[in-house]
């Protein structure tokens, strides 16, 4: 039970401390609101869920890497910057993949609803 509680504390810390985590959670809520409204299939919902989990997981990893780097050094060091930038890049790549997937799934349905 303790590992579960500790993990939840980590997630809550990221939600409270990281603006991007809150944006990802709001985006996830919007994705699932659209999925319900546009009546996506179970398969499409699973694909969307996979992307949501991937983006949020990577944001958690990014936060942990930033904290670990900050713990080691407060100085501006090229390797510290690279570690943070690469972790942020992983989140960006997943976010773009998620956005493209959402456009592919929602785009035709939105088109039909709007036009």
Automatic annotation (TrEMBL):
One of its GO terms (molecular function) is kinase activity. Keywords: Kinase, Membrane, Transferase, Transmembrane, Transmembrane helix. It comes from the Bacteria. The keyword Aminoacyl-tRNA synthetase does not apply. InterPro entries: DAGK, UDPK. The chain crosses the membrane at residues 21-40, 46-65, 86-106. This is Diacylglycerol kinase family protein. It comes from Exiguobacterium marinum. The lineage of its organism: Bacteria, Bacillati, Bacillota, Bacilli, Bacillales.
